[in-house]
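Please predict the structure of the following assembly.
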Amino acid sequence: MNEIVNGFFQAINLIVTLNPEVMEITLRTLEISLSSTFLGTLIAVPLGGLIYFRNFKGKRSVMNLIQTLYSLPTVLVGLLVFLLLSYQGPLGGLNLLFTPGGMIIGQTILILPIIIGFTITALKGVKGEIKDLSMSLGASEFQTIYTIMREAKYALLGAVILGFGRAISEVGVALMIGGNIRGFTRVITTTMSLETSKGNIELSIALGIILLTIALIINLLLNQIQEK
Amino acid sequence: MPLLEIKNLSKNYEDKPILENITLSIEKGTIMGIIGPTGCGKTTLLRIIDLLEHPSSGKILFDGLDTSKSKKDRMEIRRRIGMVFQNPVVFNGTVFDNIHYGLNIRGQDKKSSRHKILELLKSLGLEGYEDQDASTLSGGETQRISLARALITQPDILLLDEPTANLDPVSTEKIEAIIEDLHQKKQTTMIIATHNLMQGQRLSDEIAILNKKIHQIGKPEEIFRTPKNKFVADFVGMENVIRGKAKKADHDLTLINLGGIVIYSSTPLEGGVYASIRPEDITVSNMKVRTSALNEFKGTVREIKDIGTLINLKVDLGEIFTVYMTKKSFLDLKITIGSQVWLQFKASAVHVFK
Amino acid sequence: MKRNTKILVLAVVIIAIIAVAAAALSGYGQPTQVLKISTTTSLDDTGLLTVLEAAFEKKYPNIDVQFIAAGTGQALEYGKKGDVDEVMVHSKKQEEQFIADGYGTQRYPFAYNYFYIVGPADDPAKINGTTNATQAFNKIMTAGTADPNTVKFVSRGDNSGTNTREITIWNSTGVNYNNSVRGQPWYIESGKGMGDTLVIADQKSAYTLSDSGTYLAYKDKIKLVPFLTQGKDLLNVYSLIPINSTKFPNVNTAAATKWTDFVLSTEGQTIIGEYGKDKYGQQLFVPIAGKPEPTS
């Protein structure tokens, strides 16, 4: 008990004094997860739109598959991407294993299903009349799609934030692809999971508090958006 | 050349027919009322005219152009048509953004359209609304915004689907005034779909009675006076419509056996027919009056209804007839239930249709 | 809108290019060269590598040394795939196989210490006074079999160097590890790193085998005491093995050689010998560069 209380106070101290290690890890975590969220959004939102707007054989199965992949185990993605990026793997020549770039690829793959799925849900939330209305006012097909996306913008933002939440809190990909290299690929979750065994409890608690704060901010944002 | 020509148009959803063999043409500057009960296919017809849906068969020519061509051609034609939907929705944003939409997708920026939009808002009685969040407006205001949104691009034809169905009387009056104004000052060609017969009659140059197929097209008074069939007669609120058998008699007259009674008609139609006599064409008295009316019957008053300035009587002549009389003559004749009265009407007042 | 859309699309494309470029740069087009070393967690956990790295990078500022900590088994696996340039591990048998299979060039022992057999202070298996690890393990097994509620042993169970050594000792008692030890009620496999395993053993009042560095780092947080801290079968030798560049042409041999030379140099060996004296009050590693490998 004493250890927890002590650890907690030292953790607060690390945060308020802007401890360089804590700050560095936090910034890197944000950088990597924001990058994968950005890349993921760039791929997933148009893809979700395509799935929603086009009718094709097996559409229902594709949507089911996407929903199943919401809970894609992070270690499975970690393993797959590890095998891909390993020197002898098909993408070994890119030298991305144990780098932030590799982590971004892994996290992007991890969050694609969730952003695609929630993009589809967001578009479904737009009234059907909007499509008729914009067509009727003379919009081309592309302009109509753009209009529907714009109508769904808050729900789409929600999808992106959910993706970010998953990226920043996962540990499987970050650890297996990043390798938890100090000053290079060490992020909040990998530090917490591995540094604890070094007796670095204070650092872990401090990072835990920061992660929790980020999660809280994400939740507040989502609530704010959903109220719109 | 008519602005819009529809030829033998049909539409099925799966195997269910929604519209059958519609043929219509609308001249520039006129208003066509499409009138029919709920579920008669009005909305589907308007959506097909707006090129939002494809007909199952048949043709639509807009300004002489075939509308079944490529997506791009259809969009070009659609840009010349304005439509106001029955349940108007608004885009996220201000009133200004909403009205600007049609101009925006045609490549006109906000700055250059500002004056035009403000003018239009003013003419619709929506001055000062431009910066309001469109989702906060009332039903009547939203309807006017929808109208403005469709009008801003100056369409060649304006389609209005039940423009006042969900509105209070004050808002309805405003919308109707706007429509009349557009008709008179701008000669805007319009198609108004409505279930409200009186509104259709008030606003339109011509009306079409629709129920899957078009039962009758013509000037409103023509349709009111001489419905072509039972459906139209019922729909326009014709009373005293009775089925019978017609047979030629002498002097250009026809005798129609209605079962209980036989009446004279001047319409040369024979066989199974409907006969209808407008209540206001029947005179009521307590004794036989000398007139030129060939049809004279004595009957018993079964029902008396006060409908304001008039009294509505149901008289049993062997067939039940509805007649109207003024309050004064009603009191003068001292009519009560069970009174014996004479009904008289001319042979030419009997409208006969198949 | 046509123009707006174009601008929007253009903006998105530009941002995408920048983002991808940035991601790629941060991973791969690094301005300095990188030396990737996979290492055992017990070595990494002591903090020694951080001190060595700082001194090395001061000397070679254009080389960025990156450590990937894993169990010895996993660390060697990374080497076998060509994903690292060098390994630093502590499991002689596995290391020799690694070199025999052609993955590594040569084994460079650079330091040693001893594994500790630690356990609850009341010593329910009475191992205090035994003279070697085999004897101690034998006593734990006998006492554990007799009374699994009081006598327990926690194993890493993760194919690490420490785990490999532990199994070797069990087998040296004359029984078959898989038949008579693994799966017994008194024998617990944690599947975790050394630090976590020590904490688990502490909470269960169990014995365990630990490397000295991690035990000293945890000494103040747990109640376990060391019983055996020396002897031939507890000897723990750490070595460096550069990855064979004929097998994996991508490895940074030049940097790996510089690192090997540095760790084996007087400067590197002094750092190793001094490490831990200020923090734990005792030496954690004995440098052995240029000396024959100790046998006891």
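The domain at 4-234 of chain B is CATH 3.40.50.300 (Rossmann fold). The longest strand of chain B covers residues 295-306.
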